[in-house]
Structure formats: structure tokens, C-alpha cells
Amino acid sequence: MELASRTIDYAWWRTPGFTGLMTLCPDSVVEELSFRAAFLRTRQELKRLGVRVCFLPSYAPKTSLAALLAAKSLGVKALMMNESHGGTARASGVAAFVKRRLIALFDAALVGGTPHKRYFASMGLPAERIFTGYDAVDNEYFARKAQEIRCQWSVVSGQYDLPEHYFLSLGRFVAKKNLDTLIRAYALFLESHLPSHISDLQIPHLVMVGSGEEEPALRALCTELQLPIYDHAKGDHGPRTTDHRPQTTDHAARSAFRNPQSAIRNPGVHFYGFRQIDQNPVFYAFADAFILPSLYEEWGLVVNEAMASGLPVAVSETAGCAEDLLETGCPAGASPEDRMRIEQSGLALKVRRNGFLFNPRSAEELSRALLVFESSANLRALMGAESRRIVERFSCENFARNAMRAVEAALGKGARVLPAAAAMKLG
């Protein structure tokens, strides 16, 4: 059950022929719904259907609060789905008091992972009624699609103008994503190759998939740092073949890029614009590593997607997923040479089995992680395999199991919920 079919923040296309979904306010934008409309429509349908338990996406914004109060007014058990944690909590004083009271209205919760469970237990929700696994993607879809696409490199790479090697960032271009630090880190990474005897074809580019209000500033930063810009964005967000000449203010550099064949050899930053989910596996399939540099992040589902696609990851240590998705230790099978590189990079305390954690305010620290990734295809492969193993703990099946456990906890001791029971999700 959903309140509205559209949202301001995400321009996703809905799969044609999607069934089994009830839209309470058709043709509405969820952020524009009034509290009264959301409350009355939710209450009407919960009552008509005789719902006993409903999963609700938190207690904010106003539409979520309206749904929560509608459920409680009918005596319906309310289960909170949430990914807030101590690093994203902003409420204090009276606001924190009100937040505790709202959380107390829920009968159980399905949250992201360990830091989320810790946070909501500290806010008064009994730990035995808090379950993890809320943040999941269809791991098998991303694994399967990435493998299919890897078998078509010559065709797909040409359609999308992909460089042979690249680091990948995928997400909205908004301030909290901290993409300027990623660009600065990439500039430092390139500086380490000057002078270099490595072929430009082997030096990874930086591919950025997404759009948002920060894009003009990010492009300006690339120009300031004298990083070549490759523009692949298109209005319909489909693949295209373009002249690879980057935008640059340097006349000599522009001259060097007049031949498209030579342009692709020069490492730089590629802007691909917003892409629908069915295109994202293309970018995951061929990346050397995935980077999430957020200053703060409730979870970071793109990390799940990248890991399911078999990529090593570098994740901000403040991201909600970092504690659960990056497993302590160096990957088993890492060679003595790989371990030496990690030690010499100064990242021995930040290495994880499937990648690296890093301080999101340190472009220099992230640049060192990029250098380690680049230095060893063997290490990337080992970390990518570990990613596939670790992310299986956050599968759709695990989501379902823990959702049902939350239902049983909400209904009380000894309750057993059959698969056919009505547990409805209001999103």
C-alpha cells in the first residue's frame, strides 16, 4: 500500500504491469499530500481491510506520522522501518523528547543494522523487539546482471563510452554525499602518477552516475583542479556514443583532445547523469571499485548493489552500512605484496575484507585507498568475492524472515504468523 505514486526526490520509472500495489492517493506527489488527507485515507483503508499489523516508514515526514496515528487510532500494531542511527540523529531538547514519544508508539521495529538497533534501543524501544535487515536489495539480480554484462564488454562499453578502468560513484549529487572530497581525492590519486611510466590506458578514470543540485559546483571543481571532464549525460538517460573531448579551460590541453582516439587515454571525470535502475548494473559490472564518500548516510543501499555485483568498496566510516557491510580484517588469500602495499599506505587500521573505511573529510586518506585498489588486480578480485559473501547476510530473504519475527514480537509472546497472514507495508 502506498500513499502516492510519485516523489520529488527520486525520478524512478515504475515497472510496467506492476501488480499487487494499492495507491491511496493516485496521481499525487507524496510530499505535497496534506496531513489530513494522508490520515483519513490510511485510516479508511486499514479499517476496511481489517489490518492487524502494518509496517510504516518511520514517523517522519508528516505523511508517515499521519499513517502512524491512523494505525494507532484503530488499535493496529505498528512496526517501524527505519535507518536512522546515532550519526544521523539531529534532535535535541524538546525535539528529542517528542521523538522518544513517537518511537514509543511502535510495537516493534525493522531497522538497518547494528548501529541502528543500538540507537533505537537507546531511545527506549526494547532491544528484543528490534530486528535488523531492513536495508536490502535483490542481490541475485545485481549479481546476475553484472555477470551477463561482463560477457559483453566490447558492445556495452562502446554504447556507454566507458573507460577501460574506473572507480565508480553512483547516487544523488547533494551536499551530504561529499562528492567534492571524492573529486579532490581523485586529483591527488592522479598526481601520484606524475611523472609516470604507466600507460594512461591502465590508470583508472572516475565515473560519476547521478544528478542533483551540486553538479555545477562539482564540474567547476574539476575545472579548477584541471581534471578532464567527459560529459555523457543525455535527456532520456540512455546510452550514447560521444566525442570524448573533455571540457577544459587550458588551450594546450584542449588541443590534445581533438582526436577522440587519444582523448579516451587521458584519465578524467565522467558525468553520466541520472540513470534508471536497469542501467546501473552496467556501471557496476566494469568498475574497479565503488566509492561512497558521504559525510553522513543513514545506510547507503548503493553499497549493497556494488557488493552484490562483486566489487571491492571504499566507504565513509560515518555511513550507516559501514559497521555491518565492511568486515574487519584483510581478505583471506591476500599476497605478501598486497599486505605490504596496505601497510605502506598507512591504511592497515582501515582495511576490511572487502575494501576500506576512510575519514570522509580526508581526501588524502581516500586517495591512498584508490592507489591500493589500483595497485593489485588480485586484491580487487579477493575483495570483490568477499563483498558477494558478506552482502548475502542482507538479502531479501533475510528481510522477510526478520519482518515476520517483528510481527510476532508485536503481536505478543507465543504468536505465530502464517505466510498467508495479512502484514501490510505502507510506503
Structure notes:
By secondary structure, this protein is α/β, with parallel strands linked by helices. It folds into 2 domains: 30-136 and 395-425, Rossmann fold (3-Layer(aba) Sandwich), CATH 3.40.50; 139-393, 3-Layer(aba) Sandwich (Rossmann fold), CATH 3.40.50.2000. The protein has 17 helices and 13 strands. Strands 7-8-6-5-9-10-12-11 form an 8-stranded mixed sheet, with helices on both faces. The chain has a 5-stranded parallel sheet with strand order 4-3-2-1-13, sandwiched between helices. The N and C termini lie close together (6 Å). Mean pLDDT is 88; it is low at 235-263 and 420-424.
Domains, number: 2
Distance between the ends: 6 Å
Quickly name the level 1 CATH class of the largest domain: Alpha Beta
Give the CATH topology of the largest domain. Rossmann fold
Tell me the Rg in angstroms. 23 Å
**Overall CATH architecture of the largest domain:** 3-Layer(aba) Sandwich
Strand content: 5-15%
- As laid out across the biggest beta sheet, the strand order is 7-8-6-5-9-10-12-11
Shape: globular
Detail the poorly predicted runs. Answer: 235-263, 420-424
Helix content: 40-55%
CATH homologous superfamily title of the largest domain = Glycogen Phosphorylase B
Number of DSSP-assigned strands: 13
Q: Helix tally?
A: 17
**Structural class assignment:** alpha/beta
Order of helices and strands: HEHEHEHEHHEHEHEHHEHEHEHHEEHHHE
Described by strand count, sense and barrel closure, the largest sheet is:
8 strands, mixed
Mean pLDDT: 88
